[in-house]
Amino acid sequence: MDKKAELKIDGETYYLPVVEGTEQERGLDISKLRAESGCITLDIGYKNTGSTKSDITFINGEEGILRYRGYSIEELCEKSNFIEVAYLLIYGELPTKEQYDEFENDIRRHTIIHEDLKHYYDAYPQRAHPMGVLASMVSSLSLYYPESLDPNPPEDQIDRHIRRLIAKITTIAAQSYKNSMGHPMMYPDNKLNYAENFLHMMFALPTENYEVNPTLARALDMLLILHADHEQNCSASTVRMVGSSQANIYATISAGISALWGPLHGGANQAVIEMLEKIKEDGGDSKKWIEKAKDKDDPFRLMGFGHRVYKNFDPRAKIIKSECDKVLAELNVNEPILEIAKELEEHALSDDYFAEKKLYPNVDFYSGIMYKAMGIPTEMFTVLFAIGRLPGWIAQWKEMREGKEPINRPRQIYTGYNERSYNPIDKRS
Ligand code: SDX
Description:
Layout: E1 4-9, E2 12-20, E3 26-28, H1 33-37, E4 57-60, E5 65-68, E6 71-72, H2 73-79, H3 82-91, H4 97-109, H5 115-118, H6 120-123, H7 130-144, H8 155-181, H9 194-203, H10 214-226, H11 234-243, H12 249-260, H13 268-281, H14 286-294, H15 315-330, H16 336-349, H17 352-356, H18 363-373, H19 381-402
Antiparallel strand pairs: 1-2, 2-3, 4-5, 5-6
Helix pairs in contact: 3-19, 4-8, 7-8, 7-12, 8-9, 8-19, 9-10, 10-15, 10-18, 10-19, 11-12, 11-19, 12-19, 13-16, 13-18, 14-16, 15-18
Bound molecules: s-citryldethia Coenzyme A.
Residues 230, 233-234, 264-266, 268, 293, 301-309, 357, 359, 362-364 line the site of s-citryldethia Coenzyme A (SDX).
């Protein structure tokens, strides 16, 4: 017997099916509520609303649990690599050796971008924000692969677009950095793995030899794993929303990139470093800034803290924090803002305001310090987040398509004027 919830409206009783997930999460199915009662539900910001059923990622915000297709983020960081995790998210299972080699080799061979795309960079201002460049360039890929406009392409064509995107996003991103530095583009080196190749394209120069530091490459690979998916976050929901209109995959991913750019979402890693630098310049008094973050009349927020779902430590933040210590020690880097970050965390976690509101460090709090240690410029931090999140966006888009979900079109409660008549302009005061 399927469980049902009872809802009473004006003396009438309506029955809402209770949907239970594999981790015992429960939701009320309201898909027939409007037809039966004339009512919709209202949940501004979708804080309590499920938009879909998904097999991809499980988060338990109260316990700080994150799993991709059932595998814990801790185990994947320790035993897997980003390309294998991308395969897992997109196709649902860990690949066999043969499947992995074919997927990984395909991505290596598709990192190079069409020569004509290089000329787009000549038109971008040197100070163009790389997230704006990335969103534009990814959308422009649809112009070079017009077959992607077919809303019902064969599966092997979808696979080609998926591999192209994962391959080319690193080249496009690195080139936006080279363009901002006035340096020539570095072509991909297919002898290198995904993370190594990105660092090569970012920092190698035709005039001098560049050896990829294996510690940095491994740390970058782990950061990409940590960012790979996060269920129905703002940008993943954007991808499902745009994809539901049957827009092509490149335009859909470009929309996800734009949603991620916001400082409340993926842009927070850049905002955290800017905040830490500001606190350092202000004398490093972390307690003063904690008080500012608590002050309702002060617009300052502790960037990298708080989360819509995690009401405990973001497991990703814990992993990044410990990796941060290791990487900076190995690089013999003394990073003053890391000490400020640790002081802020210590003061915040012992403060009632943060404890009551269950505000803990999120994925963005320490990631920027790692990127900074790698020599990645601050404006590129959210680009690294996008590179990591791409397989998650693709997995969400693929699941939405395969589930034949309807075009997303929410309802509203209208609160504007009732009907009124037009009055001529000379009669208006
Ligand atoms: C990401 O959804 C995802 O999964 C996202 C992400 C992913 O992997 O895709 O995890 C990546 O986006 C991480 C979050 C990065 N953003 C930031 O670090 C920006 C700073 N954090 C906040 O802006 C905020 O915590 C959010 C946006 C992350 C979550 O906001 P919510 O869930 O809408 O909560 P809220 O803004 O209503 O805050 C609840 C209360 C408020 O106080 P009251 O009005 O109840 O008195 O907590 C306060 C807020 O003022 N609060 C903070 C705070 N975050 C929340 N106060 C000070 N500093 C903060 N950082």
